[in-house]
């Protein structure tokens, strides 16, 4: 059986060769890269702030703050309209918004890396499938040629034996 060259374009063949050289062990999968300390803190704070646990605790603390100031009306540390509470919530928002944005930016970068990794895997799979199709076509052509030669041989042998 003769070796049959895969019928891919030169660009596809070079891309496939490049992708074949990248073994999974050599690829740095996006999720395996370590985040820095600041990124891990931002992710942890985002996970905490975006949880029902945090919302419930903050709601209870706000209710206690307001109730404490309303009950201790004469000795209230933050009388109505709760300017100190408003200042604390603004302070919290001023710091949490950038932290959440840092975490979202990091997640977006991870998503981009995952998409690039998936794309490379998909391209490799597509090119490998094309190569397999080409190999199957070559095998099919060889089988058809072999069968044609057999038919020609049989028809030639049948003509030689037939009386005239």
Automatic annotation (TrEMBL):
Xref: InterPro entries: DUF1003
Keywords: Membrane, Transmembrane, Transmembrane helix
Bilayer-spanning residue ranges: 41-68, 80-103
Pfam family, one: DUF1003
Protein known as: Putative membrane protein
């Amino acid at each position: 059986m003769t070796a049959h060259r895969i019928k891919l374009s030169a660009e596809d063949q070079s891309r496939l060769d490049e992708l074949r050289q990248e073994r999974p062990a050599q690829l740095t999968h996006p999720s395996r890269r370590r985040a820095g300390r600041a990124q891990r803190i931002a992710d942890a704070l985002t996970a905490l702030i975006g949880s029902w646990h945090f919302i419930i605790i903050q709601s209870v603390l706000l209710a206690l703050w307001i109730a404490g100031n309303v009950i201790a009306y004469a000795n209230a540390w933050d009388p109505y309209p709760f300017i100190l509470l408003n200042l604390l919530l603004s302070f919290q928002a001023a710091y949490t918004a950038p932290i959440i944005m840092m975490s979202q930016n990091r997640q977006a970068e991870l998503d981009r890396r995952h998409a690039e990794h998936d794309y490379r895997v998909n391209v490799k799979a597509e090119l490998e499938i094309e190569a397999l199709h080409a190999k199957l076509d070559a095998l099919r052509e060889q089988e058809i040629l072999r069968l044609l030669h057999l038919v020609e041989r049989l028809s030639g042998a049948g003509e030689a034996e037939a009386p005239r």
